[in-house]
Structure formats: C-alpha cells, structure tokens
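Quick one, probably user error.
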C-alpha cells in the first residue's frame, strides 16, 4: 500500500481568506474600508428630495441676485437723483448765461448806436480822409502863422525905423528950435 502524506495544498490567498472567515463564509469587517454605522443607515435621497434641494439652492441664489439688483437699483436711483440735481444746476447756469448774453447784446447795440451818433463808427477810409483834411487845415494855419510872423517881423523893423526917424526928427526939431531962439 501506498501511503500519502498530507501536504497542505493551499495558496497564500486562500489562507488569507480562511483567516478572515467567520460564521460560515461571511467575511468579517475590514478595518480599512469600514464606514461608520451612520453612513450605512443614511438613506439615499429620492429624486424628489434632490429636486427640492436644487430648488432651494437656486431659490437662495436668486434671492441673493434679487438683493444685489435691489441694491444696484437703489444706487442707480441715487445716481439718477444726483444727475437730476446736476442737470437742474446746469439749466440754471445756462439760463443765467443766456440772460447775460442777451444783456451784453443789448449793451453792444446801444454802444454801436452811440458810436454812430458820435461819429466814432467811421470806416478807416473815412478816418484817413478826415485826418488828411485836418492835416491840410493845420498846414494852412501853419502857413498863415509863418506869414503873420514874417509880417510882424517886417512891421517891427518898420516900426523901429519909424521910431528912429521920429527920434531923429525930434532931435532936428529941437535943434531947429534952438537955432530959432
């Protein structure tokens, strides 16, 4: 008879499985992949709950956007109020400027009328002609003055000559009177 020796014919994987086996091939808990009991008990959300969560999330986002838009609306309202005030200020300035311009136009018209009546509104040709006429008159008066001075000089000479003759005659009359006496 042949005898067989009992040599275990197991592989290392089988030995590992067998060591982990508890209660008729039910694996024991693996420490590496164990999850807490709460996670096992946590229910998988239904499709309705997922939609509800999405709705609530979107609702919050939209609520924030609405708040931002309301804040922007308020800021824009303030900006509009500021711009209205600036527009009113500019309109008042424009009206004042237009009144000042109208006043200046009236003053300008009055000034032009007074210049025309005073004869100051002449053209340059008219001024040149008037200046030439005045220069001609001045030259004539200058000539008359020189003529008068020359005549005066002549008359003074003749006066001196006459006075000298008169003195000479008086001296002769005195001489003749002395001789008669």
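Nope, works fine. Designed sequence:
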């Amino acid at each position: 008879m042949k005898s067989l020796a009992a040599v275990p014919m197991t592989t290392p994987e089988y030995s590992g499985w067998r060591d982990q086996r508890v209660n008729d091939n039910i694996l024991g808990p693996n420490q590496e992949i164990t999850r807490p009991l709460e996670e096992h008990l946590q229910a998988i959300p239904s499709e309705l709950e997922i939609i509800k969560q999405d709705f609530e999330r979107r609702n919050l986002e939209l609520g924030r956007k609405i708040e931002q838009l309301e804040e922007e609306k308020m800021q824009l309202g303030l900006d509009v109020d500021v711009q209205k005030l600036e527009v009113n200020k500019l309109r008042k300035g424009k009206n004042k400027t237009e009144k000042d311009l109208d006043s200046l136009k009236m003053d300008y018209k009055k000034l032009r009328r007074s210049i025309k009546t005073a004869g100051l509104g002449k053209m340059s040709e008219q001024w040149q002609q008037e200046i030439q006429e005045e220069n001609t008159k001045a030259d004539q008066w200058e000539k008359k003055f020189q003529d008068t001075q020359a005549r005066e000089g002549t008359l003074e000479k003749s006066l001196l000559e006459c006075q000298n003759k008169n003195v000479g005659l008086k001296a002769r009359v005195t001489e003749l009177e002395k001789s008669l006496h």
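The chain has a mean pLDDT of 81.
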